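Inverse folding, one chain.
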C-alpha cells in the first residue's frame, strides 16, 4: 500500500530535519560563539573577501534582513562613515548603528522610507531573501526567482550609477533567464558559492556590478 504524505507533513519534516542539521553545523556554532545573529554572516564575509563589494563609507541596503546577520557584517564593513539600512516584512531586534524599515519593498512608501533613511541612493543592495521551503524543488526555485526579481526591481529605484546588487538564488530552469535579465542593467554579472553554504544546498549568490540603468526608476 502506497503511503501518501501531505504537503504540510512534508514541510514539517523538512523543517525538523533542517533544525537538527543546523545544530550540528560548524558555521551555526561559530556564529553562536561570536555573537552573530546567523550563520549567513560568514557567507557575506566570504563573498566580500573575494569580490570586495562593500567598502568603508558605502551606503548599504539589506533586504530580508531579519534576524540581522548580514546587517551586522555590512555595518562592520561600511564602517562609521557608511550607512546600513535593514528592511524586512518581519520585525528585527535592533542593531546599534543599523536603521530598520518595516515594510514590503514592492510598495512605494517602503522604498521612499528606505531612501530617506539612507539619505540618498544606495551604493549596494544585498539580499539573502529566501522563500519558505516547501520541500518541492520546482516551487521553491520559482519562489526564489520571484524574490530575486523583486530585489532587482527595488535596486533599479535606489541604486546609484555603477552600484552593486548581491542576491541569493536557488539554481534551476529559471536561473539563466534571471542572469540575462540582470545583464540588461549591470556591466558585470558573476555567480559564486561561498564555503559557508551547505553542501546539500542549491543556493548560489549572484554579484551584479556596474549598474547602468537609466537612473533610478520612478517610485509608484
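Residues assigned per position:
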Amino acid at each position: 500500500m502506497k503511503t501518501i504524505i501531505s504537503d504540510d507533513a512534508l514541510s514539517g519534516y523538512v523543517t525538523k530535519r533542517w533544525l537538527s542539521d543546523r545544530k550540528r553545523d560548524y558555521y551555526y556554532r561559530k556564529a553562536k560563539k561570536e555573537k552573530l545573529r546567523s550563520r549567513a554572516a560568514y557567507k557575506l564575509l566570504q563573498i566580500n573577501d573575494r569580490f570586495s563589494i562593500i567598502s568603508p563609507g558605502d551606503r548599504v541596503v539589506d533586504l530580508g534582513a531579519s534576524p540581522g546577520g548580514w546587517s551586522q557584517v555590512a555595518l562592520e564593513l561600511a564602517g562609521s562613515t557608511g550607512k546600513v539600512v535593514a528592511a524586512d516584512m518581519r520585525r528585527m531586534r535592533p542593531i546599534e548603528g543599523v536603521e530598520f524599515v518595516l515594510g514590503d519593498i514592492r510598495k512605494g512608501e517602503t522604498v521612499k522610507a528606505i531612501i530617506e533613511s539612507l539619505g540618498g541612493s544606495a551604493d549596494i543592495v544585498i539580499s539573502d531573501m529566501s522563500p519558505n521551503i516547501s520541500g518541492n524543488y520546482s516551487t521553491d526555485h520559482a519562489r526564489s526567482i520571484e524574490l530575486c526579481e523583486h530585489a532587482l526591481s527595488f535596486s533599479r529605484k535606489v541604486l546609484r550609477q555603477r552600484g552593486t546588487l548581491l542576491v541569493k538564488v536557488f539554481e534551476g530552469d529559471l536561473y539563466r533567464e534571471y542572469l540575462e535579465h540582470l545583464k540588461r542593467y549591470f556591466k558585470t554579472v558573476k555567480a559564486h558559492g561561498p564555503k559557508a553554504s551547505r553542501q546539500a544546498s542549491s543556493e548560489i549568490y549572484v554579484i551584479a556590478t556596474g549598474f547602468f540603468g537609466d537612473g533610478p526608476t520612478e517610485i509608484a
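Helices lie at 7-23, 26-33, 40-51, 69-78, 108-118, 137-158, 175-182. Residues 1-7, 13-21 have pLDDT under 50 and may be disordered.
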